Amino acid sequence: xxxxxxxxxxxxxxxxxxxxxxxxxxxxxxxxxxxxxxxxxxxxxxxxxxxxxxxxxxxxxxxxxxxxxxxxxxxxxxxxxxxxxxxxxxxxxxxxxxxxxxxxxxxxxxxxxxxxxxxxxxxxxxxxxxxxxxxxxxxxxxxxxxxxxxxxxxxxxxxxxxxxxxxxxxxxxxxxxxxxxxxxxxxxxxxxxxxxxxxxxxxxxxxxxxxxxxxxxxxxxxxxxxxxxxxxxxxxxxxxxxxxxxxxxxxxxxxxxxxxxxxxxxxxxxxxxxxxxxxxxxxxxxxxxxxxxxxxx
Length: 297
Description:
Structural class: alpha/beta
Strand content: 15-25%
CATH architecture of the domain at 17-174 and 201-234 and 287-296: 3-Layer(aba) Sandwich
CATH class of the domain at 17-174 and 201-234 and 287-296: Alpha Beta
Strand order of the largest sheet: 3-2-1-4-5-10-6
Oligomer: single chain
Distance between the termini: 38 Å
Helix content: 40-55%
CATH superfamily of the domain at 17-174 and 201-234 and 287-296: Vaccinia Virus protein VP39
Mean pLDDT: 89
Number of helices: 11
Order of helices and strands: HHHEHEHEEHEHHEEHHHEEE
Low-confidence stretches: 1-14
Radius of gyration: 19 Å
């Protein structure tokens, strides 16, 4: 292996610790850079994920007076939805590795007057909180982006109290999520290189149910349960779909911004052709599948 190279093991970990740290810093910067777009589209993000959030809360059952931690919170929708369940005697902590994301989540919670919600900048792979701090841990569409999935899963279990519950949502297999897979394919073809690049965690890195179950059980969660939830992406038009996708697709945003006008036009044509099979009388509807995983300590 060449010095400085990044190699992903089957468990999702990177073999070179130095490069893992560098990659984590790079990913943190990437998500910080797209945070303003996530803030702008936060209501849409929460609306699209409403079914996922409901399923996570049903599985984790936050109770009045309990403490809830949302990891990789983005604009904070899942944690804010939990705030009503724990009530004024409970507490919800919204956290993200990107401080710009945490700030957006905190501002949204404050605007809603959620006095039982606070925020922290926390890394899912090294959660700076004491052991057994929380009754519930939520992570909606974030665990798959960890550079070391096993370390992140162990950290989730570590901060749970005895009897604590976790609910985690990740994207299913790439072939069942063409809403994003076709974008990666089109950009890869346009760039002449794989997107995301080798070694970078992808949105589909935990899309295998068997692997996900083994990961969570190996970290110490008991009675791990994983189910599929259809999560199609709907938009009124190609323009609406592409505007949101290009704004929210973290690793792609910088790539797309750097394309010259001609290449951007060519990419748009590729994408219109790829999306054409999903055009309906009401706009666009592209299939998607989310895996909802849960377990307890």
